[in-house]
Each structure stands twice: as structure tokens, then as C-alpha cells.
TrEMBL record:
Region Disordered, annotated ranges: 247-270
Keyword Ribosomal protein: no
Residues forming coiled coils: none
Keywords: Repeat
Organism of provenance: Hemiprocne comata
Lineage: Eukaryota, Metazoa, Chordata, Craniata, Vertebrata
Domain of life assignment: Eukaryota
InterPro entries the UniProt entry points to: ARM-like, ARM-type_fold, HEAT, HEAT_type_2, PP2A_Regulatory_Subunit_A
Entry's Gene Ontology cellular component terms: cytoplasm
One example GO MF annotation: protein phosphatase regulator activity
Spans of repeat HEAT: 115-154
Record's signal peptide: none
The protein, known as: PP4R1 phosphatase
Record has Hydrolase as a keyword: no
Amino acid sequence: EPTVRTELMEQIPPIAIFLQESRPKFPIAFFEYLMPIVVRYLTDVNNQVRKAGQEALLILLEQDLVAQSDIENKVCPILLDLSAPDSDDEYKVEAVNIICKMASMLSRTTVEHMLLPRFCELCSDGKLFQVRKICAANFGDICNAVGQEATERLLIPKFFELCSDSVWGMRKACAECFMAVSYTTSPEVRRSKLSPLFISLISDTCRWVRQAAFQSLGPFISTFANPSSAGLYIREDGTLSIRPSVQDGNSSSCQPSNNITSVSCSTNAT
């Protein structure tokens, strides 16, 4: 019964945590028995079971319970198969979504060598706009996961494609994550490539795209500032923040936490 398999998936993370805490007594139980179940349920015929398996996998990755070898030899190959050009539409949408979510939890080498080539292919998927939209909405996270060199060499050309996509929701998603993409690039790329691209979004024919671009204008401009003098930095949750000055931090009347302001750079695309 699918409901039984779904319930089982929901119990995997707490069991895995227990086994990790009791590892001297159960050194290989998780890797030998539980991890194969999680991987198998990523391709289950039932939608609800697959979603439960995906959620369980993300929790296990967040808790750092999955071995690097299992990620590279078991998880990534399954996701690459599910996101292949000839894969079922529903499976492909789910696969690209989980690839984007797990990118920030994996090592840069694993993301760049195993997942980035497929992500670039999916950005140009001409069959499913839902796939391109997921890529656009998570573009900043992927840039952050692979770093400046891979972003400028492989991702910026794809970002240009998405920013000129015929579907306005794609362009809106790009406008919303523009600051996160810009933050990952060099000052020269920001000036020579991203600035003209941003102007095209702020002049877009769709008012929803223009509105999203105007909302991202301040955060985008902030990426041109020198962090050491401006005190700007990007938090792990993708928000632009300002560090309090040393003078403010030493003030007896204010606590440092009260002097930090944040500007969100990402909202859900519609």
C-alpha cells in the first residue's frame, strides 16, 4: 500500500539519527539497510511516496547523515536518470526540483562535476516550461554552490537565455534572484554583462517582470559596493545584510543584533 510506504519514509530520518548516535552498536545499519530504501523510493510509482522519499533525503543531507560515496554513486545517478531528456515529465520536474534543493548541501566538487552539466541542459529544456522555471527560481543558489569560475563560464550564458525567455514568469524569476547571481560574479562581469541585462529586465514589456526588477534594483546595486567598507554581506538564507559598525557594536545603548538590517533577494516566482 502506498500509504504504508509513505509512513515508512517519514520514519527513516529519526531512525537514521538514532543509528548515527548509536553508531558503535550499529556501524553499517543505515548504509546497508535504510539508504537503499530511500534511493529506491525516489523512483516509486506513487507520487506521494516519491515526495516522502525526497523529503527524507533532504533531511538526511541536512543532518549530514549520507556518505559522500552514497551521494555520488547512488543518489546523483538516480537524479540524473530522472532528469534525462527522455524521462517522464512528472519525474523530470521532481528531479530538477530536488537537484536545486540539495545543491547547497553538497560539496562544490560534487555539484560542479555531477549536477551542473545537467542543470545547464535543463535551463534550455524546450519541452517543459516548468523545468526552466524551477531552474530560474533557484539560479542564485546554484551559482552560490559552484562559485565564481563555474558561474561565469557555464551559468551566465544560461542566465541570459532565461532572462529573454518567452514565458514572462521565467524573466520574473530571474529578476528576483538577480542580486544572488551578481554577488557570485566578478566586478567586471557585473559591469559589462549583468548591468545591461538588468536594464533589459527593468524595461521588460511585462509589468510583473518590471516590478520584480525594480524591487531587486537596490540589492543589485549593493553588489557593486566594497564589502569591507560598506559592511554588506549575504547571509546563508540568501538575504542581503549590513554589519553594524565597530562603533555601533561597542555602544552601550545598542546591541549588535539590533543594528543589522536585511533585504530579501528572493521571493517565490509565480
